[in-house]
Amino acid sequence: MYTIIALPWMLWAAIAPALLLFAYIWWRDPKKEPFNELFKALALGISICIPVAVLEYGIKALLFGANGEPATLFGTTMEAFFVAALPEEGAKLLVLWLLLRKNKYFDEHIDGIVYAVCVGLGFAVIENIMYVITSDNWVLVALMRSLLAVPGHYAFAILMGYYFALYYFVDRSQKNAFMMFFMPFMAHGIYDSLAMSGAANPIVGGIAFVVLIIFCIIMQRHAQRRITEMANRDKQENLYIQE
Questions:
Q1: pLDDT tens digits for 39-70?
Q2: Among 2, 71, 204, 207, which is most exposed with the fewest C-beta within 10 angstroms?
Q3: Residues 90, 94, 95, CA angle at the centre, nearest 5°?
């Protein structure tokens, strides 16, 4: 009975952070993308959740056994990078490419970030719902994830969208093609390594949590600079065209 009464609040707590970040990135886009295209990006982000979960289960079984769990810091780091970051960021990049390869509305630098964020938030909101509704202390979990995990996916997506747009509009080099996956993969892996370390060593986990907060602050500041950079590129190009 308690769960039924609390369920709407659980869902709202899980969805609200993604909605706020979606509203913010939409506001930062000077030339708004059609809502149907943005919702398509969100839907694609949602659609990869089950395939990614299956892939993650398979990779984890290969690394730790069918029902195994990492018991060392090396193990939790392996899980962070290769069970979580690798399939999740790989799947996000795949659907971002499918979405933008023939998208006529993808015509400004900041659009790469906008669409990548929508894909990332689509994935993040489903992941967040699952964590919140299956938790015994859902209020604390919702609060912590609204401050760390969901903004984390948002920042990973900004890195991906930034390098995607840089590759598409500025320099189609192998470096930019590599960085559009490598940077979000590394950021995601570092984030999860810090977050998971407590499972192997509570003392290290406590220290890592402080480092995680600092890392998240740095990551968000970096993400904001990338948004501003792309917005300024578009502004300069528009001024050049008008002249």
A1: 999 999 999 999 999 999 999 999 998 888 89
A2: 2
A3: 120
